[in-house]
């Protein structure tokens, strides 16, 4: 598995990023589409710097719309979104917009230039960086994603997983401190998911991750915001399986490992204080149960 974590893409965009405030505040936000469809209704939450937050809910819950609002790609009909010291809007300054990085669910929506290098260079060039700095950032981002060998390839000729890596490299190259990830594991195999897990686990930025992949996001997120147009729950992700009501209201199904331990707990076969995130934690719980 190729993930070069020794490469440190600069995380400084302007002087404002030296501060450690960087709080995201979503305040009573609602959004309605032109046809009258309510996508989001009166949602509020605060995310502090460095948190990795899963945004969970069924299809049509408003997860993608929420990320687009936070990225300033759409305008809320009610409420406001504040990041650090500026209000997010469609007309915000380039220097502020550069601090927000969004990964679309389909990388083909994000890649549009003739070569991979040009695509990754687009965002840093758009915020006015010098040519040498752009080249440095692009090369660092490509190396971090282990796709330097693809730099002169045409994006549309790449595999889906390669396109996803190029899209992520493009985000990292302009050094945002808030990452908005829309279904990052969609259409990826297990190997590809594990690669992304290693990438995102080693990044310092605040992350909001909209996903249906509960098993994957359990390994990276420390908090879950559960929604279905309205906010259903905001809780530590480890407590997601402590009540079936939250899962039912959000039309979510626990992954197989979680389901197994929920049943073990319900039937009082094994004393389970918390549902394991992964196989390693499951083994430890079983070992302790055998000893105990």
What would your notes on this structure say?
This protein has 292 residues and is of the alpha/beta class. It folds into three domains: 21-99 and 176-252, Rossmann fold; 113-174; 254-291, no CATH class. The protein is built from ten helices and ten strands. The chain has helices at 63-70, 94-97, 116-126, 131-144, 160-173, 190-201, 214-218, 244-249, 256-266, 279-291; strands at residues 24-32, 38-47, 52-56, 78-83, 86-87, 100-103, 178-182, 206-210, 223-228, 230-236. The chain has a six-stranded mixed sheet with strand order 6-7-8-3-9-10, with helices on both faces. Strands 2-1-4-5 form a four-stranded antiparallel sheet, with helices on one face. Strand 7, helix 6 (190-201) and strand 8 (206-210) form a beta-alpha-beta unit. The longest helix is centred in the middle third of the chain and has 14 residues, at 131-144. It is globular.
Features:
four-stranded antiparallel beta sheet, Rossmann fold, 3 domains, globular, 10 helices, alpha/beta
